[in-house]
Task: structure prediction
Amino acid sequence: MSLPKRILKETERLLADSPPGITAAPKDDNLRHFDVTVAGPDSSPYQGGVFKLELFLPEEYPMNPPKVRFLTKVYHPNIDKLGRICLDILKDKWSPALQIRTVLLSIQALLGAPNPDDPLANDVAQHWKDDEKDAIAEAKRWTQQYAQ
Amino acid sequence: MDLNHPLLASAVDLLPPFPSSHPQIQRLDRSLYCQICKELFSGPVSIPCGHSFCSRCIRGSLEVMKKCPSCNEPASEGSIRRNRALEEIVDSWEEARPIIHGLTSNNSRKRSIMNTGPKNAFAAESTKRPRKESTSRSVSPVKQSSDKKEEIDGDADDMIALDPYTNMAESSEDVKASCPLCDITMPIRDISRHIDLGCQPIKPRPKSQGRENLKADWKKVFSGAGLVKGKDVELKKITKPNYSLATPAELRSVLQSYNLSTFGDKPALAHRVQEWILLYNSNLDTSHPKSLGALRAKLNEAEASRRRDKEKGREEMASELKTSDGLARYAQDTKGEFERLRREIMERDKKRVGSGAEAPIEIE
Result:
């Protein structure tokens, strides 16, 4: 398998010393495919939840961004029901100076700071705008139900 | 998946990190790594915003997006400039790194050497490294200007001389060994250069023998004898073709002129040309350029490994579908997709025929 040295180095560091609340390990059969868990940030509706994600490094990585998707259901205006994430650095703001670690930290930060003005899940975003309290309560319910 | 995975084992860092007890050295070390490949700079270049990267890395990045990977400021390939000072720093850091690493990880030894005193600092300085004239000269003014500095420098030189790594390197000046690739015997110190050049015979480097030779060398420089004529023509950067307009024949002729394979359809040819130009042009931004043969080998190796990956994926898929278990799994995985297609077709047909029609597709 052709695996750039950079990917091996990043993997090694992720395994040896992962950021708090985040784990990432490549699958045995494909070192470009990672199983990720992210803990919901404190004082957010996702607190206490552990969210599973999958991360894939395309062949052009690091020139192109990794592909990341939530596997756990999340009630969040920037994450749709297929788990796709609306995050600038995963699209046009990607830079090869970023890495897996920074991407996962950004995703954790996104959980702590939902942005209903740039929605991916329109109904959730509308809910958030109409009645933020109720939306947050719903997000907490989802966290309890799916992310334990 | 753990750290003992065979593929990870092969990646064990050749450059050990510095201990956290020396944050200053950690910072110095970090600042010499390229933000893109996370390795020590190789052929470093700068772009207008002032950030530096390996030539190869930033050229590859600018093909995808025309901005700086660090600060997002617009940048283009034409604005790339060699950063010779940074290259010299990285080169000397690469040489010094193992020594300094040894010192940081072995504090007690360091102290004992400090106590033996910097008496013979100048002697060590003048006898060491006759070839690296420029570096020792650039250090000396600092030494004379401040006594304190001199002491520190002296210590460093002392320790360098005592280090087993350098001792070995200096005593091995005349030890011979055979190249692991082509089995030709040569002095050990020439082997890595020999391999870098694609196993070409290495001419023994002329040893500078005092003033006489120096004078002769300078004479050569002034008379222009040191210049290799015709080199300028060969060392021009390749201009990129317009990949969407270029015909396969044109791409092939580019590849042919560099003795590369002209096999494949247009996308494959364009990809090969693109990668070759990347390798070739970035090779011109370093003081340690590789031979065209080595570049060609690198290109072929990358292409072959990509092809292997692709074939492997296809084989796995095919072998999985051969077993009934795998087939069941495949059906399970793609069930949703089939369901969706079926529903879509049924709805479409319903619309066309009208509400009275029965669903024409029945799937068990």
Notes: Chain B is about 60% helix and 5% strand. Residues 15-105 of chain B form a domain with the Herpes Virus-1 fold (CATH 3.30.40.10).
